Structure formats: structure tokens, C-alpha cells
């Protein structure tokens, strides 16, 4: 009998910090696409994101580990944080493919907005050979036709919560609570390390 191929979700992000919106999106896509595992891949140390400094990769990595530890189907990969330079999705997918071998199908999960950017930066055909792309739209934010090429992309509406990392950082900076927006262990890690306290 032919062995079933492993279906591996890949959730890339800055995760500064990881929050329940990310976790719900991953869980929902895993269920809809019958994924065996979702690997969260924190980005490498990106110089800047917009005009702010991004927290150290080790902090973002550890928060992602804390947030996903209780789910047997979630894991975290260091491929992007251990590679020098800015993170490009094509490298993430190539590295994971090399690491996991040929019997694995990759499903790259990302926000539909981010997806439109990724596909405009890279040669879409090459990306589509490496993975199927799943763009998550949030309810009430129906995406205008982003001009995705045929095939290779699915759009799903996840019951995403109106949570963003930006809002979490601003709350910590302002002394407002982030309980229940991010997992408890991540709240405690943020306070322990003093993240976002002085700089949003
Ligand atoms: P920031 O506010 O700093 O931009 P973020 O909340 O968008 O952070 P990222 O780490 O940039 O978090 O996001 C990683 C991926 O998760 C992106 O593809 C993003 O579109 C998606 N995402 C972020 N927040 C949500 C959410 N609430 N629901 C579903 N997907 C989300
Ligand atoms: Mg964002």
C-alpha cells in the first residue's frame, strides 16, 4: 500500500509576540486542510520592520515555543533565525523541504495581505513548485481580487481574532493588559524579559 504523504503546514511570521490570532489561524487551517503538523517559523533578525526594531530572534523563538508547546501537532523551526540575512519565503521553503525529505507536501500559511506581497516579490511559479499557499482573510476584511495566479493558492476565512502583535506591544508599553490576547506563558515571558516596556 502506498504510504500517505505527510501534510506539513508552514506558518511564517515575526511573532513579536506570537498571539492567539496566529494560533487560531494555524489550528483552523490544519483542520480544513487535514495537516499532520504545523511548523511555526519565526523570521530571521530583520534589521527593522517598518520603522521599529524587532525583538531579538531568541526571544521571538522562545515565545513561539512557549505558545505552541502544548499542541502535539505544532512545532517550531529555527531555519530562518539560524540563516543570516533577511528572510525570504523561498529560502524557508527550500530549507524545510531539504530537511523533511521528498515525502512531505508543504502548505505555506500566511495572512492574505502578506501573501499578495510575497507573490509579487518572487517568481510565483517557483514558489508554487515548493508549496501550496493558503491565505487567511479575517472576517469582515474580504480581500479584493489580489490577482493571484490560477492554482497554488487557497483563501480561507478564519475566525481570526482582531489581535495584532502591534497592538500587544502598544498595550505592554502603555501598561495595559495582554492577558488572553497571547498565551499565559507568553505574557509572563514578556514581563520577565521586559519586552516592549521601553520601546514599542
Ligand atoms: P505586526 O502587528 O507586528 O505586523 P502581526 O500580528 O501581523 O504583527 P506577524 O508575525 O507579522 O503578526 O504575522 C505572521 C502571520 O500571521 C502573517 O501572515 C499575518 O498576516 C498573520 N496574522 C497576524 N495576525 C493574525 C490574526 N489575528 N488572524 C489571522 N492571521 C494573522
Ligand atoms: Mg502584520
UniProtKB/TrEMBL annotation:
<protein>
    <recommendedName>
        <fullName>Probable nicotinate-nucleotide adenylyltransferase</fullName>
        <ecNumber>2.7.7.18</ecNumber>
    </recommendedName>
</protein>
<keyword id="KW-0662">Pyridine nucleotide biosynthesis</keyword>
<dbReference type="InterPro" id="IPR005248">
    <property type="entry name" value="NadD/NMNAT"/>
</dbReference>
<dbReference type="GO" id="GO:0005524">
    <property type="term" value="F:ATP binding"/>
</dbReference>
<dbReference type="GO" id="GO:0004515">
    <property type="term" value="F:nicotinate-nucleotide adenylyltransferase activity"/>
</dbReference>
<keyword id="KW-0808">Transferase</keyword>
<keyword id="KW-0548">Nucleotidyltransferase</keyword>
<comment type="function">
    <text>Catalyzes the reversible adenylation of nicotinate mononucleotide (NaMN) to nicotinic acid adenine dinucleotide (NaAD).</text>
</comment>
<dbReference type="InterPro" id="IPR014729">
    <property type="entry name" value="Rossmann-like_a/b/a_fold"/>
</dbReference>
<keyword id="KW-0067">ATP-binding</keyword>
<keyword id="KW-0547">Nucleotide-binding</keyword>
<keyword id="KW-0520">NAD</keyword>
<feature type="domain" description="Cytidyltransferase-like">
    <location>
        <begin position="10"/>
        <end position="171"/>
    </location>
</feature>
<dbReference type="GO" id="GO:0009435">
    <property type="term" value="P:NAD+ biosynthetic process"/>
</dbReference>
<comment type="similarity">
    <text>Belongs to the NadD family.</text>
</comment>
<comment type="pathway">
    <text>Cofactor biosynthesis; NAD(+) biosynthesis; deamido-NAD(+) from nicotinate D-ribonucleotide: step 1/1.</text>
</comment>
<dbReference type="Pfam" id="PF01467">
    <property type="entry name" value="CTP_transf_like"/>
</dbReference>
<dbReference type="InterPro" id="IPR004821">
    <property type="entry name" value="Cyt_trans-like"/>
</dbReference>
Amino acid at each position: 500500500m502506498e504510504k500517505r504523504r505527510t501534510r506539513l503546514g508552514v506558518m511564517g511570521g515575526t511573532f513579536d509576540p506570537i498571539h492567539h490570532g496566529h494560533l487560531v489561524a494555524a489550528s483552523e487551517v490544519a483542520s480544513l486542510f487535514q495537516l499532520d503538523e504545523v511548523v511555526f517559523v519565526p523570521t530571521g533578525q530583520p534589521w527593522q520592520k517598518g520603522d521599529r526594531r524587532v525583538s531579538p530572534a531568541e526571544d521571538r523563538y522562545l515565545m513561539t515555543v512557549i505558545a505552541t508547546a502544548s499542541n502535539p501537532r505544532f512545532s517550531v523551526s529555527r531555519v530562518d533565525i539560524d540563516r543570516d540575512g533577511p528572510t525570504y519565503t523561498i529560502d524557508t521553503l527550500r530549507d524545510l523541504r531539504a530537511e523533511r525529505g521528498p515525502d512531505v507536501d508543504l502548505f505555506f500559511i500566511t495572512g492574505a495581505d502578506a501573501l499578495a506581497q510575497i507573490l509579487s516579490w518572487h517568481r510565483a511559479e517557483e514558489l508554487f513548485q515548493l508549496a501550496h499557499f493558503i491565505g487567511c482573510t479575517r472576517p469582515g476584511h474580504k480581500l479584493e481580487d489580489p490577482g493571484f495566479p490560477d492554482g497554488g493558492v487557497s483563501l480561507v476565512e478564519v475566525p481570526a481574532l482582531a489581535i495584532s502583535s502591534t497592538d500587544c506591544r502598544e498595550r505592554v508599553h502603555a501598561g495595559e493588559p495582554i492577558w488572553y490576547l497571547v498565551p499565559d506563558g507568553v505574557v509572563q515571558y514578556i514581563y520577565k524579559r521586559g519586552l516592549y516596556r521601553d520601546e514599542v
